[in-house]
Specification:
Strand content: under 5%
Low-confidence stretches: none
Radius of gyration: 17 Å
Order of helices and strands: HHHHHH
Number of helices: 6
Number of strands: 0
Helix content: over 70%
Structural class: mainly alpha
Length: 162
Amino acid sequence: MADKAMDVYLNDHLAGAMFGSNLAEQIRDRNEGTALGHVMRSLADEIKADQQTLSELMDRMGTAKNPVKQASTWIAEKATRAKFRGHLSGEAEVGTFMALETLALGVEGKASLWRTLRAVSGEYPELASVDLTGLIHRAEAQRSTLEDERLAAGTRALAITV
């Protein structure tokens, strides 16, 4: 039962990691040449590396990747593009704000994943080779950076103009 629970847990987080990685790349690409684009360049690379780390861990643990979750995630990410570009609100700043907020929540979820895996690492020998503390610190730094960008974007998007 524990292995099945771990398989489901890791697949759920892999789906989230795929979504987050694609979203980070979207934000980076839409903001090329700006301060946000510069921040997102390194952040998108880190988020992609974290996704790869999780995928490799799943391989070591013998966890099959769920193709339904992967396909659903791909579809969901494509479906959010109009919202995050501001097409639904009519405001590009609102779209950027919502994209950053979504990504920040995803990074918080990733930090929770690493913390949980560290808590159960004694039960799974495959986790011994993973620097979970380092991954937690990196997720916390990513979250802090995203929070700064999210607040700035929210201030621009939600400011009342007269």
